[in-house]
Amino acid sequence: MTDTHDIGILLAAQLTGRDAGHVVELPGTSLRVHRAVLAPFLALQAAAARDGLVLKPVSAFRDFDRQRTIWNDKWRGQRPLLGRDGRPLDASRLSADALVESVLIWSALPGASRHHWGTDLDVIDAAAVPEGYAVQLTADEFALRGPFARLDAWLARHAGDHGFYRPYAVDRGGVQPEPWHISHVATSSRALDALSVDLLAEALRDAGLEGQEAVLARLPELHARYVRNVEPAPAVSPPSRLS
Ligand SMILES: [Zn+2]
């Protein structure tokens, strides 16, 4: 059974967010990361602190159920659905195919979110905003005049020093640019290679996903465009031990 098959670094169920055996708590937060990512992330945080930034994770591991709730809410019009230009769309007026594309602009397909792996985090610079600031994670916040412009520049220069990079740095025609989304290269590269179309299909079958048929009918294309279509991972020296 694939669910219990070990793929080297993550079980199939862990790759698709249905098992959380690979993640550990980030001290002082309610967030969890892959156990191999904890030390590198703390090192990245410490380096940022030395340069006057407070690298604060606002999201890390998310499970399949959480991603399915987001997906289904958008599909049913119970959560704002935005187009590529950021304007609201009316879910009830879209075909199933158009709806699939619209949800995928801003939200990952359940089972295919890099946040399932615990290798990826969304971060802000808490030193750059007042306490109680409502984080939006928008391009404007990371643009030149935004509060996180300095973080953006710092990550571009230093994320690689600690084995991280930004897979959604630019618009590649799939997921919108997400300058706040960082990924631990050594761990996530292996997860990405292991997440095949077949494995994803298995996770999505009978999983209570709205639009399941429309998704499964074109899964190879969606996998290519939204899962594989990220910035190529930079070369890093492999860590001595990953798990
Ligand atoms: Zn993210």
Offer a quick outline of the entry.
The protein is of the alpha+beta class and 243 residues long. The chain is built from 10 helices and 6 strands.
Give, in spatial order, the strands making up the sheet with the most strands: 3-4-6-5
Total count of domains: 1
Count the helices. How many? 10
Instruction: Give the overall form.
Output: globular
User: Over all CA atoms, what is the radius of gyration?
Assistant: 18 Å
> Which quaternary structure do these chains form?
single chain
The CATH architecture would be 2-Layer Sandwich
| Biggest sheet character | 4 strands, antiparallel
Please give the number of β-strands: 6
SSE order in H/E notation? HEEHEHHEHHEEHHHH
Low-confidence stretches: 1-6
In whole angstroms, the N-to-C terminal distance is: 22 Å
The level 1 CATH classification is Alpha Beta
Q: Give the cofactors and ligands.
A: zinc ion
Proportion of strand residues: 5-15%
Helical fraction: 25-40%
Structural class: alpha+beta
The fold-level CATH name is Muramoyl-pentapeptide Carboxypeptidase, domain 2
What does this protein structure show overall?
The chain has 243 residues and is an alpha+beta fold. The chain has one domain (2-228): Muramoyl-pentapeptide Carboxypeptidase, domain 2. The chain has 10 helices and 6 strands; from the N terminus they run αββαβααβααββαααα. The chain has helices spanning 12-15, 38-50, 64-75, 96-106, 139-142, 149-158, 185-194, 197-204, 212-217, 219-228, and strands spanning 23-25, 32-34, 55-59, 120-125, 164-165, 181-184. The strands form 2 sheets. The protein has a 4-stranded antiparallel beta sheet with strand order 3-4-6-5. Strands 1-2 form a two-stranded antiparallel ribbon. The two termini are 22 Å apart. The relative contact order is 0.18. Residues 1-6 have low confidence and may be disordered. The chain binds zinc ion.
